[in-house]
Amino acid sequence: MTPDWITSPDLVDYDTALTEMEARVHGILSGKANEALWLLEHPPLYTAGTSADPADLKDPDRFPVHEARRGGQYTYHGPGQRVVYCMLNVGQRGHDVRAFVQSLEAWVIAALAEFGVRGEIRQGRVGVWVARPDKPPLPDGTPREDKIAAIGIRLRRWVSFHGISINVDPDLTHFDGIVPCGISGHGVTSLVDLGLPVTMGDLDDALKRTAPW
Hints:
alpha/beta; globular; 21% helix
């Protein structure tokens, strides 16, 4: 069962992406469409997941804000960030949501490792994190870690949509308008911010090499 890989070369409007995802999920459920992994970039915007706290939207007028109806809190999407929408039949992959999310995390970590970046999971903090010993620790002495990838999915009758986002070279100041995923203190990073001259195409190749599907 090999999903279709779809890559959009131009920025994709968020509402357009939702409509396309809904259509593909309907097709998968009806047996008329194959599973799909859709690689794209959005124009600058914020999305609110089902657990979003309005207090975490610090600058509501900065960019459009969309209700995402996925799991999670506020996140940012924009140019320089690879979004991968995963429309996969989780029901045919074990009916285990936790295992599916862990497979997405492991996929991101494997792709980052292709560039020598060690991505890590932290209990209580969704997404993939990178240790930053080059930065001062937090005021309480906790070592600084920056988020490099976000994960948030939704299921409809065991078919997933939404997915992951990995920072290649977005404008990191655009994250300042929210408390990313409700987590204060730690920051946000990207492959280029870590000093790696990685292009979107480089990351796409790494994602395809390491995909578990």
